[in-house]
Amino acid sequence: MLRRLYDWVLSWADSPFGTWALFALAVAEASFFPVPPDVLLIALALGAPRLSLFFAFVCSVGSVVGGVAGYGIGAFVWSQVSDFFFRFVFTQQQFDYVAELYRSNAFLAVFAAGFTPIPYKVFTLAAGVCEVNFPVFLVASVVSRSARFFIVGGLIAVFGAPIKAFIDRYFNALAILFFLLLAGGFVVIRAWTSR
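Above: the chain's sequence. Below: its structure in token form.
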């Protein structure tokens, strides 16, 4: 079933409504849909490399809007829908792990969501359930999701089709490396400003 969904998502790359589909997919993936928008983002960007950064922008906005929807689901209707999510979308263990991350550092948890293999929807829903400060959630979502999609779009804009295989093969490692560099930058800035 997941393979059929994946193929269906890719089919939108050849549609005149591909950009709208990318936005809708990014919204849906941030709250309930299992296929990440990177699939369609890469396909659209490869079809029109000059528009790669535009597609990254569309994907980022859609993902943040979907994140807000996920936050709302977690905050307001979680008790009515939690069984559906635990049965079809993610596991109780993933949810509990993310809830624990929020107890440690909410901003860093949301920020990391843009780069971890754990689906972003787990972070958005858990943020609402855990009553994470909404402005913190929103800023971290904008920064992390934009960084993720603009990296992909930027690589395709610069390198074109040959970069696709590299992104597919090393995406998780690249995302983790980028996250570590960015988190290290925040630590350095905080240390510098507190002197």
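The mean pLDDT is 82.
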